User: Which sequence fits this backbone?
């Protein structure tokens, strides 16, 4: 399963890189790039909760197989129709690919605590992150290089192959089916929301992450291919900057797998303040090596946070609710991302590129620091909840 998902991560990075460059090469600007990237985010928002509910109802390994196979098929169809698709129609393709990703993510993350003991969750999640981040580096470079040398069609076919491989390698994985009480889909969703509401630290971090991604990620990723084409010489530099994120994450997963600070939340949120460096590095912009370094630092702090955060959720949330809560966590991350992408174009038109990047960085820093005021965030745990009570909502 680990090997298959590592392969699939290459496809995860290939698709947005290939389609972003395809749009830019066809003359699209920031608004068009934002619309294409926002399509993936929209698919995630629409289907993540459904994926979480299914992960607590069905075989999680089977869901992962179906989701990866579906994404491979969507990309093959996109390749066959690419010459006849207007740029706007690519948004539909990214929505469909994002929907498949949303259906598989909660099931994959919910499988981890079923296959590993609690004492190895940090190490296991660090290993998973190391594999995924390594593949993300390869995906970014392969996506930019393949589009430049062979075209968008070849890049999308390569992504489809990685998804097919990911599906194949999960076929033999067997894990216990989740225990659950008979319930409706809405009842399942309410159970997940109730579990989060009873843990204010979880809710606070989810809200902050939502704002960070809407304001920071949407701005940085939308303007990056435009600035790279204008200032750094095109697609290869774009791929190099994105690869920097993955390279920066690798030492973070090693550190998180070995270092167990008592206040994991404090360490994580203080580190995440550095994520403001992504949009701020594009002011001017900085020379290409410094921009790559800032994006690498962003990858480092995000991965350090993520390993501690996902391990805390897997440890603190009851098994029967993990699929829904993990889905809601992902949903909170992407809930406002489509809106963020949609606002980048009008904001740049109204304020200018530099002002947009500056405001983006400042908002990320302030919101991240604000979470430390909420009880429980410092330790990523609700100390008023006894350990033996974690078997119920």
Assistant:
């Amino acid at each position: 399963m680990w090997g298959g998902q590592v392969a699939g991560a290459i496809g995860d990075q290939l698709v947005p890189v290939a389609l972003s460059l395809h749009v830019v090469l066809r003359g699209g600007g920031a608004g068009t790039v934002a619309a294409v990237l926002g399509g993936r985010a929209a698919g995630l928002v629409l289907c993540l909760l459904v994926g979480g509910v299914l992960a607590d109802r069905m075989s999680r390994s089977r869901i992962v197989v179906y989701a990866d196979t579906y994404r491979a098929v969507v990309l093959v169809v996109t390749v066959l129709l690419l010459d006849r698709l207007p740029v706007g129609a690519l948004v539909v393709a990214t929505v469909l690919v994002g929907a498949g990703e949303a259906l598989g993510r909660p099931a994959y993350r919910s499988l981890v605590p079923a296959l590993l003991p609690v004492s190895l969750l940090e190490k296991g999640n660090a290993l998973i992150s190391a594999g995924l981040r390594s593949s993300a580096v390869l995906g970014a470079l392969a996506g930019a290089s393949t589009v430049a040398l062979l075209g968008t069609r070849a890049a999308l076919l390569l992504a489809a192959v990685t998804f097919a491989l990911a599906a194949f390698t999960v076929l033999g994985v067997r894990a216990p089916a989740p225990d659950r009480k008979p319930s409706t889909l809405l009842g399942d969703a309410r159970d997940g929301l109730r579990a989060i509401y009873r843990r204010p630290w979880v809710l606070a971090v989810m809200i902050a992450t939502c704002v960070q991604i809407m304001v920071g990620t949407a701005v940085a990723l939308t303007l990056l291919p435009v600035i790279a084409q204008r200032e750094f010489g095109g697609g290869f530099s774009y791929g190099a900057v994105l690869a920097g994120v993955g390279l920066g994450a690798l030492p973070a997963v090693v550190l998180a797998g070995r270092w167990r600070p008592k206040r994991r939340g404090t360490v994580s949120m203080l580190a995440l303040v550095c994520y403001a460096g992504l949009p701020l590095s594009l002011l001017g912009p900085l020379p290409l090596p410094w921009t790559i370094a800032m994006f690498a630092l962003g990858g480092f702090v995000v991965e350090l946070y993520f390993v501690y955060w996902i391990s805390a959720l897997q440890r603190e949330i009851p098994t029967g609710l993990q699929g829904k809560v993990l889905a809601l966590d992902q949903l909170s991350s992407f809930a406002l991302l489509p809106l963020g992408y949609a606002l980048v174009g009008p904001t740049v038109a109204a304020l200018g590129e530099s002002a947009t990047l500056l405001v983006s960085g400042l908002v990320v820093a302030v919101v991240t620091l604000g979470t430390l005021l909420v009880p429980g965030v410092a330790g990523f745990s609700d100390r008023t909840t006894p350990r033996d009570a974690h078997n119920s909502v």
Q: What stands out?
A: Confidence is low (pLDDT under 50) at residues 384-393. The chain is about 80% helix and 0% strand. The first helix runs from residue 2 to 25.
